Amino acid sequence: xxxxxxxxxxxxxxxxxxxxxxxxxxxxxxxxxxxxxxxxxxxxxxxxxxxxxxxxxxxxxxxxxxxxxxxxxxxxxxxxxxxxxxxxxxxxxxxxxxxxxxxxxxxxxxxxxxxxxxxxxxxxxxxxxxxxxxxxxxxxxxxxxxxxxxxxxxxxxxxxxxxxxxxxxxxxxxxxxxxxxxxxxxxxxxxxxxxxxxxxxxxxxxxxxxxxxxxxxxxxxxxxxxxxxxxxxxxxxxxxxxxxxxxxxxxxxxxxxxxxxxxxxxxxxxxxxxxxxxxxxxxxxxxxxxxxxxxxxxxxxxxxxxxxxxxxxxxxxxxxxxxxxxxxxxxxx
Length: 333
Prior knowledge:
Shape: globular
CATH architecture of the largest domain: 2-Layer Sandwich
CATH class of the largest domain: Alpha Beta
Low-confidence stretches: 222-235
Number of strands: 7
Number of helices: 13
Structural class: alpha+beta
Order of helices and strands: EHEEHEHHHHHEHEEHHHHH
Protein name: Transposase IS200-like domain-containing protein
Radius of gyration: 21 Å
Mean pLDDT: 86
Number of domains: 2
Organism: candidate division WOR-3 bacterium JGI_Cruoil_03_44_89
Distance between the termini: 37 Å
Strand content: 5-15%
Domain Transposase IS200-like: 9-123
Largest sheet: 5 strands, mixed
CATH superfamily of the largest domain: Transposase IS200-like
GO molecular function: sequence-specific DNA binding; transposase activity
InterPro entries: Transposase_17, Transposase_17_sf, Trp_repressor/repl_initiator
CATH topology of the largest domain: Alpha-Beta Plaits
């Protein structure tokens, strides 16, 4: 059977899940769960991966992550090997712990990240023993379930220092609203967002899928991406990208934050921040004067349409992108 493609690029968001071999437990006791989290933190730091949400069930786990480098495979290989080694040692066993490879789905941040986080956090009340319980009882269980990032999303005092809550909370307006968002999903039920997967590995809008295919896939295989191998986003700070664009266009970088500034220039900086700083459209919007992600999306779409028909705009974009690439070529990773 052919394996699914692992589409990897700097700044990509993934939902990752791994299930125990033969659906057997991967956590036997509390020590296993604590060790799992400790090893996860080590792997996150080693591979510069951002953890946005997680949940640990008895025989599987879910992670919602962003890879600052194009290194999902390396991160998951390291983490799974480390935990399998610990589990086997701790329980005097040998052999495979997980059922095949982990599953990873590329997430369109602007369209699905918030919804996937809610779906992930509701996992703990989907177990059969809670199906007949009242909504109030299941909500109480959700809040008290220790092995999930949800407590930190609804109560700041319960937050973990290894989870990045800010992005998802900014999408809904803070902890109080996220609490209501999850409770609403519990009360009314939500569909499985992964029923909308495209190409078997991408959860996103048609535009997002087209963009991924154009950039990273050709004839059903991954494009060669030598410039991404080992690329850390630490050298592509938003401030640096914005300065490059300003220099290339002969503009003051502060004008990018004017809400009614030059649409072409703001479109160029939006596109290059998205490509080279790994920012989401929500994060880009904050840099461009506090506009929302849909406004950023429109800036990028208008830019692309203009470049198809306006050579001058295309030259401006190419000049700015070349400036960023030149900077990258002079940086040792």
